[in-house]
Q: What sequence folds into this?
């Protein structure tokens, strides 16, 4: 079965509308499911499409995952897949196809093969989970099994296979798979891919800077923060269930491993000893703990654990994992052991699926808050003692206990386990 | 857990075709043998007897009340006398859950259920593309694709969980005291629907109860149940396929419940419209969903159809003699073979277990009052239940103490610890639904014991911790996990895991570096909790404290299956029918409990990864038979494991809280405890009106507001039931934590506070959520 392509779509429009240049893509509406690795690459797609002339308001992301979305738009189109983050894509597709006031023309769901990563060049590879990479294909099948829902709704389904971690390959890949959909020539593909990476790099840099600012603030005030070890889509409120936000509400800044700062000064300070001893070749080398370093997100999770184990102000790590994630399974014990080696607190919220186990989360969040209040100062002190006094985050101030009472968040009274409001 | 038992059977491409084997006009076989199809289902048995050419001569169905074999014997008797079924001549074919056991006893052949149903459908309804058969304990769907001769079939069935089955509806209907005849007439259309858990029958029942309490009509609840069943079938058993007309609905529930048929019609026609499924011209879509009058007989009839294609030597009826023997004798012998030994290997092993874990038994026997029984961190290392000191009011005047209170849903408990962490005093109050009165009762008892003694610190745990913190002047509100972990580690500092099996939930706390690093709370599924055990014991009229003795008396027990509590209930009835006695069934239940706790509910398949020292606590572990099976189970997984029972299993929460308060006081904390007089003289007013109804969800709980006069109380001027300064409000009778927030106004106040904190303490994910998907630069 052949999909309608941009030229055919415009050919139809041209027959009824006023003269439009074939490559004027400003009216084209492109829907992107907000799923899986789109969470860390969204700006690439925005930059790419905008460079092709697609108007900002015509790039539509689906909403966060929710049970309602699945019920209303995805029902019965599920696939035989135990991976909830993949399974729920059918709800996103359905929402983009049926749930838009103004219909989309293209459903754009890339199959991302490799990912950009701080660890690129220091690990074996940065490929994605095969199930995640091929997710769009299996979900598409649910919409084409009996009849072609895309064509019926006048939608072109576009799913480029792309190796974002290997930038030199991207232009050709995008051109090959999208030339018919968007009527692309190689040169404009090249410019659009460049624009995409610029947008992505700018956003990533901004997010890493925020993490650095948080660590700066923690160092200046000797206050703890929490690192979330999870996959990018756990930022989706319907998949990660905003567990970390409940801890944030207790007065703890939250870092995500995807956007940890990789600045040279900080890296050298944290990993100085490991490099001197020859255990690792660079701060981004994880071969000391993970030799099969093929999978990008898994690699970063391992590196995040190492970072957390060394960084003094990360006194607690929250591990999120979806139900029966085969990629996460072998990392549970190593990450926990790495983090706990420096007595940093480690808490796992595993087997997450569509239902938010609110009661259990509340109890666990309160548990985490209790231990953070009890042990954070001691954890910071002992981790600092292992590092050189030349901290790149500036001269360190006195410990939190000597701060004015009003400046200490509720969660940080080491001698006062905090109360929790019912709504948290 | 619904997906666990989902079975996808490969399409039956090129399966037998009735037409090709037996032309419709085939002559009656020369031998004149009759053909009999019998469906031995989970709740009913059906038979169809036909001539050698497949012409139906008679049929019947009857409930078997879990006596499948007896019912079949009865059927065979009637078939022989009324319809001339003859041994050595006629042929008999069985299908259904009980077929495998019975068929060989009478010479019959077993036909797989789906094959049987499909054979009937293909013969009787060549234009059907989708069949839903809902049974008592399973649900199946069959998709037929292709045309006439070469139809392929895709079969999906689910039989491990009650969600979406007939039992699911009937269980709740029984609870609502609706007679079957009435249930069958109840409607789906025209009623407001409410959310009912479609996943588990026990939770559906709980949801129905909550709705009932909230004043929702029985009609609406039943309509919502029909909705849940159809949703569960469509959501889990269609797997990306659209049921294409025509549709056939089979099985008892589909036939008998008008409302269920309406729910199917509603959902399927809606789905067809959404998916633009083409309808045959001039036909009302609803008319394409057919429930045949003989919907119950399709499997039995299918046996006959399949039999027509089988060689004449298969399934020759051998008479009912062996079946009779099996019912009268054989099954009892088999029972012993199929079952397993009791909970103990030999009497020495049992005695040695009892010597180690039996201890002082349960309860609140009066101790000597000064805590020598428990020692300081090393007492009861062998896991005995220790006596909890309770002092009479007249013997009073303890020294400075730390007080810990645990406000649970049914009881409130309090303990006093000495500065050396010795347990000096314990008391409890049965919850009266008013936490202020519960607190008053506890503190009256504490005052009698402590007298003028100093209170070093007060900590509270349990649901009351947030409600009562300010009212009592508690120094530390302690979350349950911390309270239990603190108490556990105090007595067993090297513990790796605490397993708390309570009445309504199972909690597993995994400890590492002295902290709770992982926590499993099972409140999604009733499997494995104490209430279930208690429910069965009550049915047998066995008091809880005699249950262990009964279970230990059993020298053999049936093998029950792990998992769904709904099916476990019917499994028990089934075992009872087989002749297993109450003691033996209780032993089997105790034996299955660890599997349900650790594997089914806790999801811990690899116990070794948890550690080697386990503390058992919670009310259910006061049952020594459960302790025995827990110990045996853990040791079978980890031979060098050490399993201990918390010496104060029921008071652990309060003890943990008191220890936290003591630690706090040792670090220089000065208690904010309001004092016995203030608590005794707490003035409060209770309001229950339309203004106090909770509107967070459609259940609309009728809450009560207890307003307490309190120095420094912040009041609630924004409330619909305004409260002036100098008062605090406690909200009760809510059925979920949401109800603790009074209304939208309070939510706004709380949200504003949270937002303020969140702005001060950033979360990188917020940046991603706000900016990563931004289409405009900036």
A:
């Amino acid at each position: 079965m052949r999909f309608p392509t941009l030229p055919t779509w415009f050919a139809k429009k041209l027959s009824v509308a006023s003269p439009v240049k074939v490559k004027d893509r400003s009216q084209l509406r492109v829907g992107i499911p907000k799923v899986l690795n789109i969470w860390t690459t969204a700006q690439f797609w925005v930059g790419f499409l905008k460079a092709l002339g697609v108007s900002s308001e015509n790039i539509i992301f689906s909403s966060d995952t929710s049970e309602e979305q699945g019920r209303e738009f995805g029902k019965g189109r599920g696939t035989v897949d135990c991976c909830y983050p993949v399974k729920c894509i059918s709800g996103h597709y359905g929402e983009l196809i049926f749930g838009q006031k103004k219909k989309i023309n293209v459903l754009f769901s890339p199959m991302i093969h490799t990912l950009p990563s701080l660890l690129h060049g220091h690990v074996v590879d940065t490929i994605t989970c095969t199930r995640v990479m091929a997710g769009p294909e299996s979900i598409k099948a649910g919409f084409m099994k009996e009849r072609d829902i895309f064509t019926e709704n006048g939608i072109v389904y576009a799913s480029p296979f792309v190796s974002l971690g290997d930038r030199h390959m991207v232009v050709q890949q995008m051109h090959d798979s999208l030339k018919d959909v968007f009527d692309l020539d190689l040169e404009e593909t090249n410019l659009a891919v460049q624009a995409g990476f610029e947008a992505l790099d700018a956003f990533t840099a901004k997010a890493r800077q925020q993490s650095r600012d948080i660590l700066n603030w923690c160092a200046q005030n000797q206050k703890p923060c929490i690192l979330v070890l999870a996959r990018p889509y756990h930022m989706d409120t319907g998949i990660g269930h905003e567990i970390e936000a409940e801890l944030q509400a207790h007065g703890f800044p939250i870092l995500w491993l995807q956007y940890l700062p990789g600045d040279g000064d900080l890296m050298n300070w944290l990993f100085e000893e490991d490099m001197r001893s020859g255990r690792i070749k660079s701060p981004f080398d994880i071969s000391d703990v993970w030799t099969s370093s093929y999978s990008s997100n898994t690699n970063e999770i391992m590196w995040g654990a190492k970072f957390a184990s060394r960084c003094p102000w990360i006194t607690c790590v929250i591990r999120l994992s979806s139900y029966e994630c085969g990629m996460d399974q072998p990392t549970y014990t190593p990450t926990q052991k790495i983090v706990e080696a420096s007595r940093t607190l480690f808490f796992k919220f595993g087997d997450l699926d569509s239902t938010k186990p609110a009661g259990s989360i509340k109890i666990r969040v309160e548990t985490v808050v209790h231990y953070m209040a009890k042990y954070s100062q001691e954890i910071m002190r002992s981790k600092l003692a292992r590092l050189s006094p030349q901290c790149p985050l500036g001269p360190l101030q006195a410990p939190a206990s000597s701060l004015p009472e009003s400046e200490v968040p509720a969660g940080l009274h080491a001698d006062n386990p905090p109360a929790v409001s019912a709504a948290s | 857990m619904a997906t666990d038992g989902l079975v996808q059977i490969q399409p039956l491409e090129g399966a037998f075709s009735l037409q090709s084997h037996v032309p419709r006009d085939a002559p009656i076989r020369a031998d004149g043998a009759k053909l009999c199809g019998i469906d031995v289902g989970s709740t009913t048995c059906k038979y169809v007897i036909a001539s050698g050419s497949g012409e139906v001569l008679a049929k019947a169905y009857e409930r078997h009340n879990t006596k499948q074999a007896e019912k079949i014997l009865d059927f065979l008797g009637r078939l022989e006398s009324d319809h001339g079924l003859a041994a050595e001549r006629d042929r008999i074919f069985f299908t259904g859950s009980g077929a495998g056991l019975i068929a060989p006893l009478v010479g019959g052949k077993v036909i797989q259920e789906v094959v049987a149903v499909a054979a009937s459908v293909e013969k009787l309804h060549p234009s059907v593309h989708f069949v839903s058969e809902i049974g008592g304990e399973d649900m199946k769907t069959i998709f037929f694709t292709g045309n006439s001769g070469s139809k392929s079939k895709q079969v999906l069935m689910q039989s491990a969980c009650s969600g979406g089955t007939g039992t699911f509806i009937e269980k709740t209907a029984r609870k609502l005291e609706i007679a079957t005849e009435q249930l069958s007439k109840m409607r789906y259309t025209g009623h407001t629907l409410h959310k009912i858990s479609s996943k588990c029958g026990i939770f559906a029942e709980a949801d129905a109860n909550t709705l009932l309490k909230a004043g929702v009509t029985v009609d609406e609840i039943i309509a919502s149940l029909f909705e849940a069943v159809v949703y569960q079938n469509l959501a889990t058993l269609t797997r990306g396929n659209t049921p294409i007309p025509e549709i056939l609905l089979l099985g008892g529930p589909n036939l008998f419940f008008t409302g269920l048929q309406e729910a199917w019609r509603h959902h399927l026609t809606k789905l067809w419209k959404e998916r633009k499924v083409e309808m045959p011209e001039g036909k009302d879509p609803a008319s394409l969903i057919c429930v045949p009058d003989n919907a119950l007989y399709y499997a039995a009839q299918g046996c006959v159809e399949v039999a027509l294609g089988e060689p004449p030597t298969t399934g020759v009826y051998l008479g009912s003699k062996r079946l009779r023997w099996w019912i009268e004798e054989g099954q009892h012998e088999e029972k012993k073979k199929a079952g397993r030994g009791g909970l103990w290997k030999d009497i020495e092993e049992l005695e040695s277990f009892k010597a180690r874990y039996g201890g002082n038994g349960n309860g609140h026997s009066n101790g000597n009052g000064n805590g020598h029984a428990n020692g300081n961190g090393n007492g009861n290392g062998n896991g005995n239940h220790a006596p909890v000191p309770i002092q009479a009011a007249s013997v009073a005047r303890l020294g400075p103490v730390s007080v810990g209170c645990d406000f649970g849903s049914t009881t409130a408990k309090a303990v006093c610890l000495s500065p050396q962490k010795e347990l000096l005093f314990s008391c409890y109050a049965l919850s009266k639904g008013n936490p202020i009165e519960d607190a008053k009762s506890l503190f009256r008892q504490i005052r009698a014991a402590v007298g003028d003694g100093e209170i070093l610190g007060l900590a509270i745990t349990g649901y009351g911790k947030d409600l009562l913190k300010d009212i009592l002047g508690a120094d530390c509100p302690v979350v349950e996990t911390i309270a239990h972990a603190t108490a556990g580690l105090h007595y067993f500092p090297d513990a790796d895991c605490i397993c708390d099996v309570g009445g309504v939930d199972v909690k597993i706390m995994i400890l590492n570096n002295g902290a709770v690093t992982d926590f499993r709370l099972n409140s999604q599924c009733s499997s494995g909790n104490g209430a279930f055990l208690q429910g069965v014991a009550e049915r047998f009229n066995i008091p809880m404290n005699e249950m262990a003795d009964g279970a230990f008396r059993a020298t053999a027990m049936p093998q029950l299956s792990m998992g769904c509590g709904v099916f476990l209930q019917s499994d028990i009835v089934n075992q009872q029918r087989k002749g297993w006695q109450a003691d033996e069934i209780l032993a089997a239940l105790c034996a299955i409990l660890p599997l349900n706790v650790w594997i089914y509910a806790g999801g811990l398949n690899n116990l070794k990864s948890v550690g080697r020292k386990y503390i058992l606590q919670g009310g259910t572990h006061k049952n020594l038979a459960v302790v025995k099976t827990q110990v045996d189970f853990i040791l079978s997984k980890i031979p060098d494991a050490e399993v201990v029972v918390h010496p104060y299993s029921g008071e652990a929460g309060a003890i943990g809280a008191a220890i936290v308060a003591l630690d706090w006081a040792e670090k220089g904390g000065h208690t904010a405890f309001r004092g016995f007089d203030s608590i005794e003289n707490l003035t409060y007013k209770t309001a229950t009106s339309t203004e106090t109804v909770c509107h967070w969800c459609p259940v609309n709980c009728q809450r009560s507001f207890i307003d307490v006069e309190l120095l420094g109380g912040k009041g609630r001027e924004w409330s619909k039931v305004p409260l002036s300064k100098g008062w605090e409000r406690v909200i009760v009778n809510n059925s979920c934590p949401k109800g603790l927030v009074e209304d939208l106004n309070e939510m706004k106040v709380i949200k504003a506070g949270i937002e303020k904190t969140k702005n001060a303490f950033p979360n990188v994910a917020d940046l991603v959520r706000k900016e990563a998907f931004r289409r405009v630069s900036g």
